Each structure stands twice: as structure tokens, then as C-alpha cells.
Protein 1
Amino acid sequence: QEQLVESGGGLVKTGGSLRLSCVVSRDIFSANAMTWYRQGPGKWRELVASYTYGGVSGEFITYAPSVKGRFSISRDGAKNTMFLQMNDLQPEDTAVYYCSGRWGSRDVRGQGTQVTVFS
């Protein structure tokens, strides 16, 4: 069973930056998809950014419209780690951020890391 562990959350002022990390217990490139989600207080879970392997079509990177241009997803295969660089953070970005991996039909999610943005 794969394990995913997030870190890097915290308290940051509006306009600030944070970088989240997600360490995966197996080869990160073996996943069909790797995703960052978030769930803010009183809100539904939202896809923030993802890598999706499209077979012969290659790989796709997707961002939520609300974070495009401010957040950037990346990976380090040598460390089996996925990152989410978050710049120009706003109070509405306050949420618990989760990373998730899909292997076949199985989705595995980490425990989450809290990000709080204050003005």
C-alpha cells in the first residue's frame, strides 16, 4: 500500500509564498495521476493542480483557474516527491491541502497539511 506524506503548510501573510511537499513511498512516475487537492472551511474539495498520464497522448498538467499563474506543480523523481509552489497567497487559499496518487483504480491520499493565509 502506497503512503503519501505532505508537509510545508503553515501560517502566511497575504501575498506570501509557501512550498508544499508530498513524499511518496514508491516510484512517483508509476502513478497514473498525481494531484494536489484542497478543502477550505465550509467548502467542497477542490482540485488545485495535477499531473495526469494520458498514455500515447503524453502527460497533462492541470491547474484550477483560481490558482493558475500563482501556483506551480513539480516533481523530483529521485526523491519520489511532488511539490506545490504557492505564490501570492490570498486568504481564500486557506485550506487543508492534500496530495493524492492514482495507481490503476486505486486512489491513495495523504493526511493533509494546513495552509492559513491572513490579511
Note: The two ends are 40 Å apart (CA to CA).
Protein 2
Amino acid sequence: QVQLVESGGGLVQPGGSLRLSCIVSGSFTSIYNMGWYRQALGKQRELVATITRGGNTNYVDSVKGRFTISRDNAKNTVTLQMNSLKPEDTAIYYCNAVLAVLGIPGVRNYWGQGTQVTVSS
């Protein structure tokens, strides 16, 4: 069984910062790409940022220069540092990881339960 557990969401004023963290645990053998997605009320889930095992990153245009994704391969964690937050960043943020799991051929996509980020004055 594999679990992705997020932490760090909350309420912040416009211009503020939040740091989201996600830890992967369970019976996996390798973690490949990791990332953060978000889903605002009434909208589809969208990619925010991804990072490869080697540290190559990709961001949606709306967060470039404000958000930074990083990972610690030794600790099986991925982090999203969010600065200069805007009301339009309000959403549920989901951690994502592509894993190779014991006893299951190939790789699979796994998701955390989500953490609410609200940017409001």
C-alpha cells in the first residue's frame, strides 16, 4: 500500500507565502516524477509544477517566478514553496507521484488527499 500525505495548506493574505509538503510512504521501489496539481471550485484539476528524479522542473505559466518545487529523494518528499500568492491561487492542492510498487508491474500514478489553500484578505 502506498500513501501520499500533504501538509501545509491554510489561509493566507494576498502577497503572502505558504509551503506545501508531501511525503510518500509504503511499499514502493522507486519514485519517478513528482508534482503538484490544483483544483479550484468549479474548475478542472490543473498541473501546477512537476519535478523529475534528476531535478528538472516544469511550471504552469501562471505560477512561474512565484512558486518553487523541490524534492528530497532520500526522504521521499516533494515541496512547493508558494510566494506572492494571489486570490486566483485558491484551490485544493494535490500531491502526485509516479511510482514503481512492489508486486505491480510497470509504474502507476498516485495522489494525495489534497490540502486547501485559500488566498483572501
Note: The chain has a mean pLDDT of 97.
